[in-house]
Amino acid sequence: MIFAANFKMNHTRATTKAYLDVLAQKLVSKCSEDRVFIFPPATALDRYEGDFTIGVQNAYMAESGAYTGEIGLEQLEEFGIKTILIGHSERRDVLGEDQALVAEKFAYFKAQGFEIVYCIGEALEVREKGDEAVMAHLLSQFEGIDLSYEKLIIAYEPIWAIGTGRSATTEEISSTHASLKEHFDRPLLYGGSVKPENIKEITAIDGVDGVLVGSASLDVERFSEMIFA
Ligand code: PEP
């Protein structure tokens, strides 16, 4: 199982360090094949010791240069960051990243050998149109994406389930994951209101290789409760 924590624009440098100190201690006693990823805000990137991988929530597809407000490869290399989240719905919908930009970022960071957690997901109005519309939408988010990339992890995150407290049902997750898996042979995470209360049910679903967690990952006790569940 893969457990990924997306802090979004939460936590400071100080609280991220405190969180990771606690997490590192907890993971010492966990001998397993599980993988843990933490995506803190860019201001808290650093070299941390522990049985987890630190990734960046976003970066620009250049080494450095005139891209005000962005960070690029040079800034990531300083901290040994080799993992990136690409295509999160908040970057697509709130920050206006279209599929062309998302695919450009993907190609750049693939060329740099990054491990990429690539997010896809549909809005509620698409879900309400039925399975066919959902799949058509999700497949459109694979445009320009090399699904055979060996360092690719895909995260299915229905937008209507993100930060709403309402997770997709077992049936919705199971059938969407099964349909998606016909198109690639890479790990597939589920994300959307995953929490300690539903982690066992979600990770038991066939075709779920792990979870991407937002809100419930912000508290190290709750996040580790999920890892140890
Ligand atoms: C996310 O934004 O990646 C996410 C899954 O958020 P939440 O767990 O809060 O729904």
UniProtKB/TrEMBL annotation:
Protein known as: Triosephosphate isomerase
Gene name, Swiss-Prot/TrEMBL: tpiA
Principal subcellular localisation of the protein: cytoplasm
Cross-referenced InterPro entries: Aldolase_TIM, TIM_sf, TrioseP_Isoase_bac/euk, Triosephosphate_isomerase, Triosephosphate_isomerase_AS
Subcellular locations according to the entry: Cytoplasm
One cellular-component annotation, GO: cytosol
Residues given in the record as substrate binding sites: 6-8, 163, 193
PANTHER family linked: TRIOSEPHOSPHATE ISOMERASE (PTHR21139)
Organism of origin: Sulfurovum riftiae
Family under the similarity heading: Belongs to the triosephosphate isomerase family.
Pathway(s): Carbohydrate degradation; glycolysis; D-glyceraldehyde 3-phosphate from glycerone phosphate: step 1/1; Carbohydrate biosynthesis; gluconeogenesis
UniProt keywords, alphabetically: Cytoplasm, Gluconeogenesis, Glycolysis, Isomerase
HAMAP family in the record: TIM_B
KW Cytoplasm (keyword) present: yes
The protein's Enzyme Commission number: 5.3.1.1
Catalytic activity: D-glyceraldehyde 3-phosphate = dihydroxyacetone phosphate
Description of how the protein assembles with itself and partners: Homodimer.
GO biological process, one term: glyceraldehyde-3-phosphate biosynthetic process
EC main group: isomerase
Protein's job: Involved in the gluconeogenesis. Catalyzes stereospecifically the conversion of dihydroxyacetone phosphate (DHAP) to D-glyceraldehyde-3-phosphate (G3P).
GO molecular function: triose-phosphate isomerase activity
